[in-house]
Amino acid sequence: MKKTFFIMGMAVSLVIVLLGLLVITGAITDKPSFASDAPYSYSSGYASFGGDAYTYMSNNAQEAASAARTVASNQRDIFELIQTVSGILLMGFGLLGFCHFAILKSSAEAALAAAAAPAAPAPVAEAPAPEELPDI
């Protein structure tokens, strides 16, 4: 019964390691769609004024689009970092679990082997001869 428990624990641990590998490679996660990789560039162009000198207009839509691309690029980088770290953690816990169950299995087998081996008779101490005893 215990041997089956240890083997099942090792098998589940190997499945966790495999899931960690799949997470790192991205095989089981959906690829999110992000905007292009264009780096942020601040270029609002020349300022233009209306009919009077108090009406200032700039190209804020271009700045907003550029900032949105930058945010999307940063989100993708964070997503990839979280994906890699979670895969490494899964693999680490899986390997730790595998080693734990392997050690438990080997110690249980060693205890079983020690219990099955015949015990050697304990040596009998000989009583000292009367002439060797000290005088009181």
Enumerate how many helices there are, as a single number: 2
- Please give the share of residues in helix: 55-70%
Termini separation? 62 Å
- Cα shape: elongated
Radius of gyration: 36 Å
Task: Give the strand line-up of the largest sheet.
Answer: 1-2
Q: How many domains make up the 3D coordinates? A: 1
SSE layout and pairings?
Elements: H1 2-25, E1 48-49, E2 56-57, H2 60-116
Antiparallel strand pairs: 1-2
Outline the structure in words.
This protein is elongated. The chain has 136 residues and is mostly helical. The protein has a two-stranded antiparallel sheet with strand order 1-2. It has one domain. It is built from two helices and two strands, in the order αββα. Strand 1 (48-49) and strand 2 form a beta hairpin.
Any descriptors?
single chain, 136 residues, mainly alpha, two-stranded antiparallel ribbon, 3% strand, elongated
Quick take:
This protein is mostly helical.
